[in-house]
Amino acid sequence: xxxLVTGGAGYIGSHTCVELLRNGLELVIVDNxxxxxxxxxxxxxxxxxxxxxxxxxxxxxxDGLKSVxxxxxxxxxxxxxxxxxxxxxxxxxxxxxxxxxxxxLTLCDVMKTFGVKKLVxxxxxxxxxxTESVPLVEDTPLGATNPYGRTKWMLEEIFxxxxxxxxxxxxxxxxxxxxxGAHESSLIGEDPNGTPNNLTPYITQVAIxxxxxLRIFGNDYETPDGTGIRDYIHVVDLAQGHLKALSKVVSTxxxxxxxxxxxxxxxxxxxxxxxxxxxxxxxxxxxxxxxAGDIAKCYSDPSKANHELKWRAEKGLRxxxxxxxxxxxxxxxxxATVNNKPLQIFTRS
Length: 349
Ligand code: NAD
Ligand code: UDP
What we know:
The protein has 349 residues and is α/β, with parallel strands linked by helices. The protein has 11 helices and 14 strands. It has helices spanning 11-22, 38-48, 62-71, 86-91, 93-113, 147-165, 199-207, 235-250, 268-279, 303-308, 317-330, and strands spanning 2-6, 26-30, 54-55, 76-79, 118-124, 170-176, 178-180, 214-217, 229-230, 232-234, 254-260, 266-267, 285-288, 297-298. The two termini are 25 Å apart. The structure holds nicotinamide-adenine-dinucleotide (NAD) and uridine-5'-diphosphate. The site of uridine-5'-diphosphate (UDP) has 14 residues, from α7 and β8. Residues 6-7, 9-13, 31-36, 58-60, 80-84, 99, 103, 122, 124, 176, 179 line the site of nicotinamide-adenine-dinucleotide.
């Protein structure tokens, strides 16, 4: 079976590609490298020892996408391409709507033209909006607090309309909780641009000496230690969720949302303390004002994915942080730390 992965050069995409290749699937990757580098594609090849076509294409380029579908047999699509920064989406909302919404509409048009109606989509726990009725279940009413979140919510609704119009479609909406960590080989991992917004890459950059200290956004939440609680999930567990979702969508029709989380929440202070144990480093921190838009608690009820996809997150917080730290130590400047001669890649622009 051959799968098109959009956004395959990104953080979650590269880990997902590794899991799909390891399980015998053939891949075609499309990415415009707007938030990633070709080196991550080199590393996916290195980790798996497998080859695949890579197209440097924007998913809004309809003719480009059509040529991908004409030149390759595609059975299903895993669609991860999109912008993902909450703060940036508030500053430049139109870019987010153009990229995430128009890009996905173009992809669906081309899929329809080529009769490919099997889709796994990267949604997010952000579609639960401000809801704090944890653990979150899939039928919680949806909402959004920023343009990025609204793109995910709108796309979920668009996919539902698409299915109502043509019930041959089969779509899995994967609502990710907080993916962290890296591949155990430390060849692929998270490589944020500039100063990280997210907790774990911020902590690892403090530990390696690139940043001075962590700023903890509030310790006056209604949680046991006052800091925010999140459901951190190992990115490899998350990647395996895509494999299970693919098995489901290719064997059925319909549209279903699934939480991909562990079901367990950790506070910021618990993460800091677990990281200090794993790395042997002290993480200096200061408590600062709450960050706008943050909520106290967000963690999943993953039972639907456990039962219907036969998927379960296996790795605990210690393993997530060990792998995040190994990646950071071995790649202090992310993919800019190129130790190997790049492998030859089939690139099309
Ligand atoms: P990422 O930025 O590392 O990966 C996204 C990839 O998509 C990048 O390689 C980027 O170059 C590519 N891309 C963006 N716009 C494109 C376009 N128009 N055409 C082609 N390629 C394009 O992000 P990630 O963390 O791997 O996230 C992947 C998906 O998962 C995104 O849709 C994101 O919104 C979603 N998600 C991420 C998280 C998270 O915490 N990382 C949580 C929930 C959902
Ligand atoms: N956080 C923090 N300092 C940082 C980054 C994050 O205290 O530099 C906190 C944030 O307030 C939240 C948790 O860490 O409680 C996870 O934040 P992250 O941005 O990683 O993920 P989010 O759940 O907000 O998408």
